[in-house]
Amino acid sequence: MTAKQILRVAYLVVALAALAWIGIGGAVWSVWRKHQSAAAASAIAGPAAAVTPPPQLIESFDRARSSVQYERLDADADEAAVPAWLARQIGPISANARSMAGWVGLLRQEGVQICWIAAPRKPSDPDFTFALPFERASVREVLDELCRCDARYRWEWMQGSEIVNLLGDEQLEVPLGDVSFRPKRLYYCVPDLAPHVAFHIFGPLDPPRNYGNLLYWPVEIKAREITVRDYLNLAVAQYEDMTWSVQRLNLVTLDAPQATRDAVAEKYRDEIQP
Fold first, then answer.
1. 10 Å Cβ neighbour count for 154?
2. Contact 249/198 with Cβ under 8 angstroms?
3. Model confidence pTM above 0.85
4. Preceding amide of 92 cis, omega within 30
5. pLDDT per residue over 29-40, tens digit each?
6. Residues pairing with 221 in the sheet
């Protein structure tokens, strides 16, 4: 063989070896990725003893069959029909114009357990701001005025609670069927809701580790024929003035006043932290 032929054979051997190495490496990478995916799924699912199978979507939804019901007030509703907590006077109310998020924040400062879904808007659209025409008013009057100023919204409250929903979108009216599980941390509820909403988390391999993160708080739900919105309402109803918000990209933000955070931390003060 000439020197040129020997060189060609050497190149061919090197090329074949490289292809074989790539094939082996790809197989190893595939196995490793499957292992990581399984580990991630296990981390999200939480302790086996505390988890029931995630609720399954159903094709139709009948609110009348649900264990979660909502109430509304007509404009001409008799005063006697207004619950005391909705008739409560709040204020002074700022005369400055605010966005809907700003007014929701003010109501929360006044002790109203209000959860809301922002009306859709383009990223380039500025916030719609407006002022309220009174210095003091009842909670009901403020909610009515918010919906009058921005007709994209409506409000109602969950029956048997003081949780108000201010709704600018119907995106959470997704049926989940029957949901029942023993106490588990909110973090482990994420798979139940993940196809429809997202949460501020870093990843399944780095879960919340203390009660400073609201997703670490335990909740228990047993309900019939509920939606994603019902699920969130039932979860936050277990803590005083805890709330949820959904603004852009179906991202859920949880909040609670400092007094509630302190009470939860104290309740579980002796629990061994991970």
1. 13
2. yes
3. no
4. yes
5. 344 344 433 433
6. 181
